Amino acid sequence: MTFLPERKTVTVHRGTTVLTAAAKAGVKISQRCAGKAACLTCKVNIREQHNVSDPNQQEFFKLDALLNDGVRLACQTKVLGQCEIEVPEDRLKAIIRAQLEGRHDDD
Ligand code: FES
Q1: Which pLDDT score is estimated for 52?
Q2: CA 52 – CA 79 distance, rounded (Å)
Q3: What pTM value is reported for the model?
Q4: Among the four residues 87, 93, 102, 103, which has the most C-beta atoms within 10 Å?
Q5: Which of the listed residues 66, 75, 87 should we mutate to test ligand 1's pocket, taking the one with most ligand atoms within 8 A of CB?
Q6: 13 CB contacts (<8 Å, ≥6 apart)?
Q7: How confident is the model at residue 84, as a pLDDT?
């Protein structure tokens, strides 16, 4: 499987969660509830979902319409084959980057 945007690839056993696979690949995905589907900070985007598990009850309840946009919880989604996982930029990093780019524009 491949993690975007860094394009880091890793091979994992079928049934491994995306969160565990990310850790193995050295990709940081935010998480605060130890994988209990409570914090929702581990959201990732998966466009092609045929090689991952179907959303479980907790994902249906917590993500609702976001599931239609390909959003999944990395702690609940299991890898079934080759797939690409898009990891959103960390919020704090995004804020800092936006400020730095704004500062750069003023130079
Ligand atoms: S780690 Fe908290 S919802 Fe996935």
Answers
A1: 98
A2: 5
A3: 0.87
A4: 87
A5: 75
A6: none
A7: 97
Instruction: Give the tokens for residue 78.
Output: 């299991």
Our answer on whether the CB atom of 4 is closer than 6 Å to any ligand 1 atom is no
Q: How many CB atoms lie within 10 A of CB 43?
A: 18
Band (93; pLDDT cuts 50, 70, 90): confident
CB atoms inside a 10 Å sphere around CB 28: 13
Residue by residue, DSSP assigns the chain as: -EEETTTEE----TT-BHHHHHHHHT-----SSSSSS-S-TTEEE-S--TTBPPP-HHHHHHHGGGGGGTEEETTT-BB-SS-EEEPPPPHHHHHHHHHHHHHHHH-
Q: Is 3.10.20.30 the CATH classification of the domain at 2-106?
A: yes
pLDDT at 104 over 90: no
Domain boundaries defined on the chain = 2-106
User: Does the C-beta of 71 come closer than 6 Å to ligand 1?
Assistant: no
